[in-house]
Every structure is written in C-alpha cells, then in structure tokens.
Design brief:
- The protein contains ten helices and 14 strands.
- The protein is of the alpha/beta class and 370 residues long.
- The strands form two sheets. It has a twelve-stranded mixed beta sheet with strand order 9-10-11-8-7-6-5-4-3-12-13-14. Strands 1-2 form a two-stranded antiparallel sheet.
- Bound molecules: S-adenosylmethionine (SAM) and iron/sulfur cluster (2 copies).
Length: 370
C-alpha cells in the first residue's frame, strides 16, 4: 500500500536536500510578543493539549504495552496535581490552549483525577475538558467527574466479545468497561466516543458489530488505524488494518456518506452511517482516524505533556523539552511558556512513516499519552 505524508503548508523554501520531516536547521522563532501561541515553523498553531497523567496502566493492550508492563516512572518524577494544574494554566492563559484532554497510561489510576479536572475547569478562559480512558473503574467515578466539569469522554473498546477482549488487552475486564460506559452515559457525559483499534485476524471482523452496538446506544464510534507505537514492535506496514479496509467492512452492513460538518482540524474523518435492511433503524455518525494511510499532519493542532512534564510536539518525534525541572527550580510562568513555545517551534512536518528511514519512536503510546 502507499501512504501519503499530508504535509502542512510550508511558509519558507526548504533548502536543497533538506526534508520537511527531518526539518534541518530551524529558522529563528518569532519573539513571544509577536507570536504568543504555540506556533511551529510550518505555520501550524497548537490549541489542543493532551496531558498524560500517568504512564501506568491496568491493561496490556498488545498494540501498546508489553505483557509485563514497562518500567514505571518513580512517583517523585511524575508531575503532582499542583504541577499539572500550573502547567495547564500556563497553556490556557498564556499560550492559547483551548482543549485539554487527559490521557495516559490510564488516567483513572490517578486518585486525584477528579480534583485535577475541577481545578482545570476553574481556569480562565475555561478550556474544553475531555478524558480518554479504558473505563475500568469509571462506573464508580463517572458522576464525580461530570460534577467536577468533565465535558466529554472517549472510551477505548476494541471488542464486544470477552475472549477477544482478553486476547487484545491481556486482562478479563470487558464487563468493567461496559459498566463504565453505561455509568458515563447515566452521568450525562454524552455523546460518548468509543475508540477502537482493529488488528488483522483478531478483531477486524467486528468492525460492523462495534458500529451497530455504538449506534444502538447513541455513542459515536471512531476507528483508529494502528500506529507503530507499540512496545513489542508488532506493527507491519503491509498488514495493519487501513481506513479503506474499515470502510469496506462497514459497507457490508451500512451505507456511509461523508458527514456535512467541516472537519476543522479534527483527526477523525466522519461519515453518516445508516444500517441496511433489518438494521435501517441504526443511524448516526462514525469516524475513522487514518493517521497512517491518510495522514492529517498538515492541520495538526496538538501539543503533548508527558507524565513527567515533557513537552512533546509530535507523537512521532523523540524530542522532548522538560518543563518539570525548571518548574521545580522556580521558573516563572513566562519562562515556562517560552520553553513550551520553543519546543513547539521545532515540531516536525509529519510523522514520516512512509519514508524508508522511518524509525519508530523510543517511547510507546502509553508513555507518550495518546
Ligand atoms: N488508557 C487509555 C485508553 O486506552 O483509552 C488512554 C491512553 S491510550 C494510549 C489512548 C488511545 O491510544 C487509546 O484509544 C488506544 O486505543 C490508542 N492507542 C494505543 N496504542 C495505539 C497504537 N499503537 N496505534 C493506535 N492507537 C493506539
Ligand atoms: Fe493501557 Fe490504553 Fe495502552 Fe491499552 S491502550 S495498554 S488501556 S494505555
Ligand atoms: Fe502528525 Fe505528529 Fe500531529 Fe500526529 S502529532 S498528526 S504525527 S504532526
């Protein structure tokens, strides 16, 4: 298969031999007065912040974590709730961040999650606050999260069959996840988004079942193409399930047509879906995040903060700018903001997965914050 780069508009001429993804020498960054937001050298501005609250997880999804887990970050190296709120407030107040998504690892593993959400919801201007979770333990905390100001939730669910779920996650917890989804709906965290990654020969035959299940409950399903971000390095260019494969699977039971609303920088391409025959009562939308086969790097608006306080400008760039140590050493908000701006200025043009010299990042999805 071929994959395309989805390059952003490049506001300067690249020197001969210089590749956009590699970047080459950085052009000078504008001063913070003239470019207050998180601008990069290709003209994109990041307004969507993903905050990894922990690198730990209670599942071991095969496309993300190894069976034995990873060496977890010692507690004193992870950001405290106060440090997270301080950095998010710098992002929101000084750097134009408008959406904050808490992720991980598994964010529900943090005992102080509700407190963090409440404090971020009190920031001015108030950001849109969402959570990506595997939903284990959500049944007990959905109401408190909604009351604290959580606006939206994405639950990862790759299979509706207990055995397949266990094969994929290496844990027998499908019931807990389903209970978490129901509790989130009861708490009004709607519409719930369901994230599903399909693996060839494991759960790709469940694509239409997952859509029928989601539409029946009023949830919005989004398929995410598997990316080379797993610890076991099992991703293969020739065999991952592509957006095309997914559309083909869905077309067996649904009519899909492009959704009218503009994409507006969202990673998912949305389709209106209507069930065929006896399933014609199933109506709604479905999204496909084709990060590999139909990349959208040209319109990327994301900036990431790892659990130990590193700014990561791109999922696929190994470069990180640590904010934790300067923060602990007494840096001012203005100094932290400037470090963050510098990190984003160096953001690569694209992930470059289709290049022959592509090298998988050292960190896995769970350690970066998906
Ligand atoms: N533990 C939470 C969860 O699973 O929802 C949050 C963190 S997880 C890293 C965030 C998202 O990344 C999940 O929807 C998961 O399916 C996705 N993900 C993890 N590894 C991936 C990979 N190699 N390719 C594509 N998506 C991946
Ligand atoms: Fe944990 Fe989420 Fe990774 Fe699965 S995808 S192992 S739930 S961090
Ligand atoms: Fe592309 Fe990196 Fe943005 Fe992902 S984070 S869309 S790989 S630029």
């Amino acid at each position: 298969m071929t994959v395309s780069l989805g390059l952003p508009t490049i506001p300067r001429r690249l020197a001969e031999g210089e590749t956009a993804a590699a970047g080459g020498a950085l052009p000078p960054r504008p001063g913070s007065d003239s470019a207050p937001g998180l601008l990069d050298r290709f003209g994109r501005t990041a307004t969507d912040l993903r905050v990894s609250l922990t690198d730990r997880c209670n599942l071991r999804c095969t496309y993300c974590m190894p069976a034995d887990g990873l060496p977890w970050l010692p507690k004193d190296q992870a950001l405290s709730a106060d440090e997270i709120v301080r950095l998010v407030s710098v992002g929101v107040r000084d750097l134009g961040v408008r959406q904050v998504r808490f992720t991980g690892g598994e964010p529900l593993l943090r005992a102080d999650l509700v407190d963090i959400v409440r404090r971020v919801a009190a920031l001015e201007p108030r950001p849109d606050i969402s959570l990506t979770t595997n939903a284990i333990g959500l049944a007990q905390r959905a109401r408190a999260l909604a009351d604290a100001g959580l606006d939206r939730i994405n639950v990862s669910l790759d299979s509706l069959h207990a055995e397949t779920f266990e094969t994929l996650t290496r844990r027998p917890f499908l019931d807990k996840v389903l209970a978490g989804v129901d509790a989130a709906a009861a708490a009004g965290l709607t519409p719930i988004k369901i994230n599903a990654v399909l693996l060839p020969g494991v759960n790709d035959h469940e694509a239409a079942d997952l859509l029928a299940w989601s539409l029946d409950r009023g949830h919005e399903l989004r398929f995410i193409e598997q990316m080379p971000l797993d610890a076991d390095r099992t991703w293969h260019r020739a065999s991952f399930v592509t957006a095309d494969d997914i559309r083909g699977r869905l077309a067996e039971r649904f009519v899909l047509s492009p959704h009218a609303a503009p994409r507006d920088g969202a990673p998912a391409e949305r389709f209106d879906a209507v069930g065929l025959g006896a399933e014609s009562h199933l109506v709604g939308t479905v999204g496909i995040i084709a990060s590999v086969s139909e990349p959208f790097c040209g319109d990327c608006r994301r900036t990431r903060l790892t659990a130990e306080g590193g700014v990561r400008s791109c999922l696929f760039g190994d470069a990180e700018t640590g904010l934790r140590d300067p923060l602990r050493a007494g840096a001012s908000d203005a100094e932290l903001a400037d470090l963050w701006r510098g990190a984003m200025w160096a953001k690569p043009a694209s992930h470059g997965i289709d290049r022959d010299d592509f090298v998988q990042p050292v960190r896995t999805m769970s350690a970066i914050g998906g």
